[in-house]
Amino acid sequence: MQLFYQPELINGINTLDSEESRHAIKVLRRKEGDAIDLVDGHGKFYTAEIRKADFRKCEFEIVSTKEEPKRNGFRHLAIAPTKNLDRTEWLVEKAVEMGVDRISFVLCQNSERTVLKTERLVKKAVSAMKQSLKATLPQIDEMMKLKQFISSCETAEKFIAYVDFDNPVHLKDCLKTEQHSIILIGPEGDFDPSELDFALESGFQKVSLGESRLRTETAGLAAVHLLNLFS
């Protein structure tokens, strides 16, 4: 199934943007009267029929609508972006394919990347959403300072992954079904001890992701996988 994305479907916009129109008409050679499948990023699938096969602004008419099945719980990943932006893009892509509801980026004392533009990351997320046949686009937040982010968290289950091989508490043993869960992943140099202390004082629980020391993006994906097992 080839999905097209139009986030304004809920507002009655029945045209594809220029990029999606070109792909539908020029690449896939869709014609007037052909059926296409769309998602709005808000949890709905649509079947439509092309009314005007214009590669600049393809017009369609909605034939049917279907809701994406609801999941239990809410999966929120907060992570320090990697120095190599390709790794962060890879993480966003794979996390969306696997299943995540929100991705937040945090600026830590040991962060090697201090500036992050999310526009390209959103495009990666849209592509991954369509690739994995999902209809909901995860929320992707602009980067904020770690302590500011921690202070804004009001979720029921709050975890911080920290490289501490003396910590026997694994994330998988702490998660509960049907909960709003958030997991914090630090930068390549991990969290500063003062940041860890602040998180713990703010209600976060220190957890392990296993015996191996993982790259930041690997740790993020491992955490997303575990969140999916309990949602």
Automatic annotation (TrEMBL):
- One matching Pfam family: Methyltrans_RNA
Under InterPro entries, the record lists: Alpha/beta_knot_MTases, PUA-like_sf, RsmE, RsmE_MTase_dom, RsmE_PUA-like, tRNA_m1G_MTases_N
Q: Where's it found, cell-wise?
A: Cytoplasm
Listed under catalytic activity are: uridine(1498) in 16S rRNA + S-adenosyl-L-methionine = N(3)-methyluridine(1498) in 16S rRNA + S-adenosyl-L-homocysteine + H(+)
Name all Ribosomal RNA small subunit methyltransferase E methyltransferase domain ranges.
76-227
What GO annotations for molecular function exist for this entry?
Answer: rRNA (uridine-N3-)-methyltransferase activity
> What is this enzyme's EC?
2.1.1.193
Supply the CDD domains for this chain. Answer: RsmE-like
Q: What is its main location?
A: cytoplasm
Q: What class of enzyme is it?
A: transferase
Gene Ontology cellular component terms for the protein in this record: cytoplasm
What NCBIfam families does the entry give? PRK11713.6-1 (NF008702), RsmE family RNA methyltransferase (TIGR00046)
Q: Which family does it belong to?
A: Belongs to the RNA methyltransferase RsmE family.
Chain's role: Specifically methylates the N3 position of the uracil ring of uridine 1498 (m3U1498) in 16S rRNA. Acts on the fully assembled 30S ribosomal subunit.
What is the designated name of this protein?
Ribosomal RNA small subunit methyltransferase E
High-level lineage: Bacteria, Pseudomonadati, Bacteroidota, Cytophagia, Cytophagales
